[in-house]
Design a protein that fits this description.
By secondary structure, the chain is an alpha+beta fold. Helices cover about 60% and strands about 15% of the residues. Among the domains are: about 70 residues; about 55 residues, SH3 type barrels (Roll); about 80 residues, Alpha-Beta Plaits, CATH 3.30.70. The longest helix is centred in the N-terminal third of the chain and has 49 residues.
Length: about 350
């Protein structure tokens, strides 16, 4: 009878566990398959059912194996009531402290967000300062809340603060690279070396700055590749957003063409491109001959454009230069290779000599 009773208990327990596992698998697969269109209310209902099922399964298994669940729960409730009675003032102080701390952080976050979104010439600079200030504020408020909560619950924080000072000194001696990154981050931000949104080149990697912190800087290139640099290792850095860029196009014409006439045609017709390209800051200028290549006379056209717009302007200028040269029947040369057939030339020479002998 004891063996049968134990076997029955084991089977029922296994059945309860299997039911719980099946429900867990079902809710995961359901949420994963409907994550794009599922409503938050449905998710809340599913998790509530899961919690009730888990609680019921635990209580059922404990009751099945002879544990007095009622007395256990009553004991927990009594202990909880006593804890609440003895700590009600501390709990209220904890809630008030958390409310004030989180409220201050929320207000600062909203203020910094509005500050960074104001349009103007220094919009990127405002975004950078706002992100760094928010990061520093988060750490300061977090540390302040921890110390305040420890004080509310009767823990003396003065030894902890003194210990943090000594530990900070020890850590500072062994973490010089970390301190170097922080100091470099301060100089990058407050010297305005670059801002969020600027295009920079660091250690041969060119991309847009997406985030600046006190320790690291994140740069993403046009391929979507994100690279994270320690601020202490950013040396040197090239910033492409501080001054206007120069679009440069080199091309060649055939040696038989009149160079002066080609330059005059380009200077006459190229300025019309500025009406189509709003990022041009001046009319394109033909600088003249830059190289006498093997099969072409190379010319150069330049134009001052807005920062980081030179590549698009260069593509547009190449297309327009091609159209102008074709319309004016100015030859654009291409590499050609002349092959001499020595064997045929030798036969031709022998045939000529034979005719002369005859």
């Amino acid at each position: 009878m004891f063996i049968l009773s134990t076997l029955t208990q084991s089977l029922i327990t296994a059945g309860i566990v299997i039911v719980v596992l099946l429900f867990i698998l079902f809710h995961r697969s359901y949420i994963e398959s409907h994550k794009e269109d599922i409503k938050p209310r449905v998710v809340a209902i599913i998790y509530t059912l899961l919690f009730i099922l888990l609680a019921g399964a635990i209580v059922s298994i404990l009751w099945l194996w002879g544990y007095d669940v009622t007395d256990y729960l009553i004991n927990i409730l009594v202990q909880l009531r006593l804890l609440l009675e003895n700590s009600i003032s501390r709990l209220i102080g904890t809630l008030i402290t958390l409310f004030i701390g989180l409220g201050i952080f929320k207000v600062i976050k909203i203020a910094l967000f509005r500050f960074s979104k104001k349009a103007g010439e220094k919009e990127h600079r405002k975004q950078t300062v706002a992100k760094v200030t928010l990061s520093i504020t988060k750490y300061i408020i977090g540390i302040g809340l921890i110390l305040a909560l420890l004080t509310i619950w009767g823990i003396n924080v003065l030894p902890a603060i003194a210990g943090l000072g000594i530990a900070g000194l020890v850590i500072g001696l062994g973490a010089q690279k970390f301190i170097n990154d922080l100091i470099s981050g301060f100089f990058i931000i407050f010297e305005n070396q670059f801002d969020v949104g600027d295009w920079v080149q660091i250690d041969g990697f060119m991309g847009q700055v997406v985030d600046i912190g006190l320790k690291t800087t994140q740069v993403k290139n046009f391929k979507g590749e994100l690279r994270i640099f320690n601020n202490g290792s950013i040396d040197p850095v090239s910033n492409f957003n501080r001054f206007d860029s120069l679009a440069i196009v080199d091309f060649g014409i055939a040696y038989k063409e009149d160079v002066a006439a080609a330059i005059n045609v380009l200077m006459k017709e190229l300025p019309a491109l500025r009406q189509e390209q709003l990022n041009m800051l001046e009319d394109p200028r033909v600088l003249g001959v830059t190289d006498l290549a093997n099969s072409s006379v190379n010319l150069r056209v330049v134009c001052l454009v807005r920062p980081m717009e030179q590549w698009g302007i260069e593509r547009a200028m190449r297309q327009r230069i091609k159209e102008i040269l074709v319309n004016n029947k100015i030859e654009i040369p291409f590499p050609q290779v002349v092959v001499h057939d020595a064997h045929r030339a030798e036969k031709k020479t022998e045939a000529t000599q034979s005719k002369e002998n005859q």
